Amino acid sequence: MAISTAAHAASLDRECVVFVPERTSSVRLELIAQYEPAIVQVAGDYGKLYGDALELSERLPIDVLVSDVPTRISGYKTALFEIYESLAPAAPDVIALPASSGGFASGIWLGIRDLKRAGLIAEPPRLYLIQTATADPLTRAFEAGETEPTPLSPDETGDTIAHSIGNPDPPSGARALAAVRDTDGAVVSVTDDEIRTAQRRFAVDGGFCVEPASATTLAGVSRLADRGDIAADESVVLVPTGTGFKEMGTSEAEVATETVHRDALQDRLESLLAP
């Protein structure tokens, strides 16, 4: 969001200030900074910045783009239209999304309702929202049968590699839960180990480099399939919302390489190709 907002502001010659968490990686900061916005790293409870931003927009002559402004939700719903357009004449049985503030889920749900009102779809796809287990107020609310999530305290919130969705107090949580229940979907949480496994599968099996938050979709669908919520013959759409290239340099994993002299390349290739 920060990268695209800064880029759009630059294209319009508008001034832009970007708020990011204090622990944002240097790689992400560099990608944002290329569009020359003012970057402010915010210390303290980042989840409460949503309310702070709304108050600031009333006091100062600025427009603040938060997760659930109506224009942003309307933009999100076009992702649903693209999914149906690309799969036509078939239709998805399941759409899986990473969940943080609940804004993206709200937009996809709005798109589903638009298509139903237009008579273009009979059965809506089931929406499954995936959270990180270290910050999963939506999962807890769904499993408890609640219509609104209860914000998690700092003691209830842990660190995760999927920091993009580590939101303990989702502002659009009630709408996200309504979207899930309206489409007979569910909310599930996954661990960092499951996310890492899903990231590797995205890369090796699909050729996609996705950030950890995006990999939660595959991790969550795998868990849902294992427990029988998703059948093997159903059409499932995973929506990876962020590239993994902006995470480069932040992993602790070692890259396995070897050095071979050019004169020995043929012998080495033959050994690699040997059955």
UniProtKB/TrEMBL annotation:
Alphabetically ordered keywords of this record: Lyase, Pyridoxal phosphate
Gene Ontology terms for molecular function: L-serine ammonia-lyase activity; threonine deaminase activity
Residue ranges occupied by any Tryptophan synthase beta chain-like PALP domain in the UniProt entry: 1-242
Cofactor: pyridoxal 5'-phosphate
A Pfam family annotated for this UniProt entry: PALP
Record InterPro entries: Ser/Thr_Dehydratase, TrpB-like_PALP, TrpB-like_PALP_sf
Biological process, per Gene Ontology: isoleucine biosynthetic process; L-serine catabolic process; L-threonine catabolic process
PANTHER family: L-THREONINE DEHYDRATASE CATABOLIC TDCB, THREONINE DEHYDRATASE, MITOCHONDRIAL-RELATED
Protein name from the UniProt record: Threonine synthase
Species for this entry: Haloferax denitrificans ATCC 35960
Lineage, top ranks: Archaea, Methanobacteriati, Methanobacteriota, Stenosarchaea group, Halobacteria
